[in-house]
Write a structure and sequence with these properties.
The chain contains seven helices and 14 strands. The chain is an alpha/beta fold. It has one domain (13-271): 4-Layer Sandwich (Metallo-beta-lactamase, Chain A), CATH 3.60.15.10. The strands form three sheets. Strands 1-2-3-6-7-8 form a six-stranded mixed sheet, with helices on one face. Helix 4 crosses helix 6. It is globular, with a radius of gyration of 18 Å. The protein starts with 12 loop residues before the first strand and ends in a 23-residue tail after the last helix. The model has no long low-confidence stretch (mean pLDDT 96). The structure holds fe (ii) ion. Fe (ii) ion binds at residues 79, 81-82, 154, 171, 181. The site of fe (ii) ion has 6 residues, from loops. One of its GO terms (biological process) is glutathione metabolic process.
Amino acid sequence: MMDYPVNMDLKPEVEAFFGEPTNTISYIVKDPSSEACAIIDSVMDLDYAAGRITHDSADRIIARIKERGLKLEWIIETHVHADHLSAAPYLQQELGGKIGVGEGIMIVQETFGKIFNEGTEFQRDGSQFDALFKDGDTYMIGNLQAFAMFTPGHTPACMVHVIGDATFTGDTLFMPDGGSARADFPGGNAAVLYDSIMKVLALPDMMRLFMCHDYGPNGREIQWETTVAEEKANNIHVGGGKTKEDFVKFRTERDAQLSMPKLIIPSLQVNMRAGEVPRDKDGKQMLKVPVNGL
Ligand SMILES: [Fe+2]
């Protein structure tokens, strides 16, 4: 395993924003020694039936950043989400900051560029983003050093972000009673996901873990924070000594029964463009539905 620059002495302030329609948790992560902050996994609101986009979720975060007098340096996407739209361009326009994603985005753009029959104007080189992270790449939020850890499996572009003693898991891991995310999207792989989860669980036991999603299994209230020790002991898919073979068998059988996320078609088209809504030849914002394409 590569040597990551873990520093448990750095303790960023983490503020969570739960978005009920898609069960997504977005975060503001603040450097304790300055006013610098980052946003992890923002949400743009979509009423798909009406084709209507609004920004109430992002506006809540913007208002909070302004109220606290913070300076936004990074807008991080842990991966190309398939269940909600990113608000990254809207946040950047309002507050500045750089949009970063894993360099695996190029594979995602290649795959879905074909599925959505995009023309040559759709760049497949990740150039819609300001930064493309490789495994172990570091970046600064004020004086706080963060790094990206390559964790493919759910998608080929997934990165977990480690910021001091706080780790943002994206969809690599859910709360202990939620288990793990599906691995059957194009470019996904259950065995690869297992290995990625083991990388996350090799972080220090007291590492705080922050989820991107929670669905409140068995009627419990929504939660988003746990620790490496908790996940190792209790995660229903990978904890308590479950083997890779157990995981792959379970994950593959479960995934075969899952229906597509409600917003997968608009989400992919927008998120593979760093959150920009595609435009037709007249410049109008327009989404496609590839029939039997997914
Ligand atoms: Fe996802």
